[in-house]
Amino acid sequence: MVFDLDLIKKIYGSMPSKVDAARKLVGKPLTLAEKILYSHLYQAPAHAYERGAAYVDFAPDRVAMQDATAQMALLQFMTCGREKVAVPSTVHCDHLIQAKTGAAADLATAKDVNKEVYDFLASISNKYGIGFWKPGAGIIHQVVLENYAFPGGMMIGTDSHTPNAGGLGMVAIGVGGADAVDVMAGLPWELKMPKLIGVKLTGKMSGWTSAKDIILKVAGILTVKGGTGAIVEYFGEGADSLSATGKGTICNMGAEIGATCSLFAYDEKMAAYLKATGREEVAALADGIRDYLRPDKEVYSDPKKYYDQVIEIDLNTLEPYVNGPFTPDLAWPISEFAKAVKEHNWPEVLEVALIGSCTNSSYEDISRSASLAQQAIDKKLKTKAEFTITPGSEQVRYTIEKDGFLKTFDSIGGVVLANACGPCIGQWARHIDDPNRKNSIITSFNRNFAKRNDGLASTHAFVASPEIVTAFAIAGHLSFNPLKDKLKNEKGEEVMLDEPKGVELPPKGFSVDDAGYQAPAKDGKNVQVVVKSDSQRLQLLEPFAAWEGTDLKGLKLLIKAKGKCTTDHISMAGPWLKFRGHLDNISNNMLIGAVNFFNDKTDSVKNELTGEYGAVPATARAYKAASVGTVVVGDENYGEGSSREHAAMEPRHLGVRAIVVRSFARIHETNLKKQGMLALTFANKEDYDKVQEDDSIDILGLTSFAPGKPLTMVLNHKNGSKDEITLNHTYNEQQIGWFKAGGALNVIRAEFAK
Ligand code: F3S
């Protein structure tokens, strides 16, 4: 047993009284999100908190970190003077394994290439009391769902798809490493009280439709920004009919609409999953406080009164969806997809179909996809596209091998990749004849921004359920609708695929030989953590400088980013993942994917000191060497996507003083604040247009920096004219303290030194 039953007993022991007290305070029946949030406050509340406005201190139960973000989180943690983590925490080695030929060879290569980093993570976990999941053990969110998630709990994780654990009724939120450091150090974790979006699911799915289609449809309705600052709570008969892992898929992809997290209420399906994964005691404990793990009954009868927004989806009429390309909110019902492919001139030939990942590799997903693969065998069909399968964990992989599904996939040419992120995060050595050729791929993953999967701007990536992806792999072209189109088999006969069939949980149970877990030492005091001084992969951190106490004057514009600027544009993944533990080296990817407004090019900005154009990181280094601070200007939802704090640390390291945008994605805005950076928004969004390439920029008002009080940006244009612009911010007192100290870590360090 890797989970801490005593901890769950303690949490459940105090939850009813905390929830009852909160109901009195709020003065009305409570949603599930409110029950969990109010029972996880750092201190007992004196009043109700206003949603979308009040900053609240929470005490999460757990922390989970994946290997790419854990490096920086733990490098930060080791500087803050603690002997052990204050809450149960885990590290999962999943992001650094590159998919090339297949599971065994790719895993062996990764262990070799990343040895230094894995050794660092294993030893630092051992030292500070952190559970360590070795490379090959599985993808963080699947391993968490199988082992640690529990109804009514609260966790944070250094990965944006942490909300996957909402499938087991947990408030699970993606954060940057600096937030993880707070919680591991036993400090309160601050979050603006989220707004609540209720999604009522009526009816029941059947046939080709699966849980993935619910979130693909929701993404189309709410768009990539629609969930910002909100918890999405699903309810209704349709919600209770979904398997726990199906619920997990929906919560996982809630990250694609910017939601703080997503949540389902405790029900029979969750109990069944807990029991199937060896946690009968947790299910029994949850049954004991069942009413506290579901919204109050009144919420169901009049949801509009309790949620800030309510959406209703009828599962009886829900179609399978295909979303994309380039953004997960471009949602096409399957009946309209073929037409869209033609109209937009997207490459119709499908080159690669990929199933699995943290989002969609449950036993149910795999069994439904395998039923299609079996049909392909029976009906004499072969896959026309390359087809890969990424199991979410060794437990899933072992079980689906034992039950014969991997053999079925193998028979139609499927390649099983390592239990790791691989192509989902650009860790994919794709074989393609011409990288500039427009091409299409389809995945059952969650994110499909340009270059995300294979680093190629020419790749059109679509997202769908594993069963739709499998059907497309067999058809080999995107104008196929498996619900009504026929395919020609090897004998030249026309055949149709029948509806996929699957089972939620393995009839003969899950099993695994070696799950890949290393428990930490009871007393890690003498465990040595090694970081070589000449390492190219790891670098010990130096504290950032404190604010100089004055307004910032004479700053230069580093880049005015045009359009979408996600964390992938700011700090690209793929080949750069290997530098996630080395701030100076990884800073060489800073903003290289962002489009310069003034020349429409990526990684080409003007150095005002020389008048020459150069790469963004090199230009930033030149300004830094000349002690000239810089400003980055951005568009809407700047920093959407992942929780990686490198996207905030790199500009901080390379001398950027302020990021000024039309709007921010939540996690990135917080990450910037944590690193002592100014994260500011145009009060008037049109002022974005006033910023010119050769401006000298002043940021005024910092000596009286206060919550709710705007700052001023003066754009001193080259022709002698000026524009004075009002900048809004969302800093509270504590965050202003971080800015002044030069970063949140400097504040923590000073507190422990007292
Ligand atoms: Fe990994 Fe992709 Fe999930 S990167 S954690 S498999 S979103």
From TrEMBL:
Recorded GO molecular functions are: 4 iron, 4 sulfur cluster binding; aconitate hydratase activity; metal ion binding
Q: Which UniProt keywords apply?
A: Iron, Iron-sulfur, Lyase, Metal-binding, Transit peptide, Tricarboxylic acid cycle
Q: Which cofactor does it need?
A: [4Fe-4S] cluster
EC number per UniProt: 4.2.1.3
- State the pathway, as annotated in the record: Carbohydrate metabolism; tricarboxylic acid cycle; isocitrate from oxaloacetate: step 2/2
Using the record for this protein, list the coiled-coil segments as residue ranges, or answer none: none
Residue intervals of the Aconitase/3-isopropylmalate dehydratase large subunit alpha/beta/alpha domain: 34-476
**Can you tell me which family this protein belongs to?**
Belongs to the aconitase/IPM isomerase family.
By what name is this protein known? Aconitate hydratase A
Organism from which the protein derives: Puia dinghuensis
Gene of this entry: acn
